[in-house]
Model the fold of this input.
Amino acid sequence: MKYRTTLLVTALVCWAIMAVAVASVVWGAPYLTCDCTQATDAVTGFQLQFGTQTAIDIPAVECVPVVADGKRILYDLGTMPQGAFSVKALAKNSWGVSAWTAPLAGIKQLPTSPSSLKLVP
Done:
C-alpha cells in the first residue's frame, strides 16, 4: 500500500511540474523560435540581432522528443518595446558560427480599446 501511495504522489508531482512548464510556454509572451537543428550540427547556442543593435547570445533549447540532441531557439519577445522590428539569427557550435538567416520582420502592437459598450436585453 505504501508503494502505491508513493508512486501516486510521485506521478502527481511530475504531472504538476509538466503542467506548469507547458502553461508557461502556452500562455507566455510571444516567442521567437525555429525548426530543430540536426544532432550532427552539435549546436551549443544562437545569436540574435534585432535591427542594427549588437547581437546577443542565447542558449539553445532541446528539441527532444522531436529531434534527439537537436536544438532550437526559444526567445521571449515580451520585453520588446512596441513598434516594428526585424530580427535575424545564427547558430553556434564549437567549430564556429553559421551564416545569418534572412531577417524576420514583425510589429509589436497592443490592441485598441473596445468601443461602443452597451447593454443588450
